[in-house]
What we know:
Blueprint lengths: L1 H7 L3 H12 L8 H18 L3 H18 L4 E4 L5 E4 L7 H26 L2
Helix pairs in contact: 1-2, 2-3
Organism: Suillus placidus
InterPro entries: COP9_N (IPR055089)
Protein name: COP9 signalosome complex subunit 3 N-terminal helical repeats domain-containing protein
Amino acid sequence: MPAIALAALKNWSAAEELFDICASSPGSAASAIQMEALKKLAFIQSIYHGKHDYLCTIVQNEQQLFTNIECSEISAELSADGTVSFSDPPVKFKKTDVDRVLAQVQQQDSLLVRLEKGTKNI
């Protein structure tokens, strides 16, 4: 791992960046490599900054995520195997809104038909 070599050379900021990239790489589940990178990131941050910001950031992000779920800004489902799936909340339309948009589309359609007929005569 290049980050370990950078840490051995006391290039703390570059090592921190590489461990951060590895630990926060997207995926459907955290891998063992990501967990090791997270541990090493906390260690590097403790040396470099005197504290480990990454774990604090994870806790803050987790709190924000739960807040978004509670406010229905994000939908989440927990499957039987413990996997969490996220999706946008279902969109709800009122009948009056749908009717209004449909009327606007029909007006635009008739305007386009008239314009098309007018250009064919030219």
